[in-house]
Write a structure and sequence with these properties.
single chain; about 220 residues; 7-stranded mixed β-sheet; two-stranded antiparallel ribbon; 9 strands; about 30% helix
Length: about 220
């Protein structure tokens, strides 16, 4: 059985920096990883891994979801959580996790695509950033969840028992961001793509260090 299930939804939303962390840990005798393409293959048993990471997606988890697999994934996460499997949700994963645990997802009036620095209620679990935000939906956190960070773009992080949801993208690289901007055909865009791209030169190194702390804390010791 793999130590970690990685739920990916499309080619251009890969694990990025998280993938490097997981590969290094696997080489050192840590987490064995199984990647599941939710958009193209059946979900395994909710207890098929000891931990679950849910990546981002262009799909929406508002209501029944904008893709036919969304409802199945939310149910899968609910069953995994009931079985005590820790879950880390990133962006869409954060929204799907909130829905699975009894929260809700709603559309923002305006997308949040920007670099954010947050006031964190638990800087060890969720460093203040800087973080790349790239989302159109936001969550109402589940009952009894602890909100760890929020701003004008909504709840940016919550914890519920062993589960952690983050609305921002700790896994993002400059190349991943370029792909997201290229795929966005809106004209005019509701954000300045050049300014967001340029933010990697200023914020990228600090964001990568913060991401390493976040991932390492949630994954726990190697071995």
């Amino acid at each position: 059985m793999p130590d970690l299930l990685l739920l990916q939804h499309q080619d251009d939303v890969p694990p990025g920096l998280l993938g490097g962390v997981l590969a290094a840990r696997e080489a050192a005798g840590g987490a064995r990883v199984r990647t599941v393409r939710v958009d193209a293959e059946p979900l395994p048993s909710p207890t098929a891994g000891e931990r679950i990471v849910v990546l981002g997606s262009y799909a929406s988890a508002v209501g029944k979801g904008s893709q036919p697999w969304v409802a199945d994934e939310v149910l899968f996460l609910r069953r995994a959580a009931l079985a005590g499997v820790p879950i880390l949700g990133i962006c869409f994963g954060h929204q799907a996790l909130a829905a699975a645990l009894g929260g809700a997802v709603h559309r923002l009036d305006r997308p949040q695509v920007d670099w954010v620095t947050l006031a964190s209620a638990d800087p060890q679990a969720v460093p203040p950033g800087p973080w790349l935000a790239f989302h159109e939906d936001a969550v109402t956190p589940p009952p009894r969840a602890r909100v760890l960070a929020q701003d004008a773009g909504g709840v940016q992080a919550f914890a519920a028992g062993p589960h952690l949801g983050v609305q921002f993208h700790p896994e993002a690289t400059a190349e991943i961001l370029d792909g997201w901007i290229a795929a966005d055909r809106r004209d005019p865009r509701p954000y300045d793509p050049d300014r967001v791209r340029a933010g990697f030169a200023t914020h990228g190194p600090a964001a990568a260090r913060a991401a390493l702390r976040l991932f390492s804390r949630w994954l726990g010791p190697v071995g």
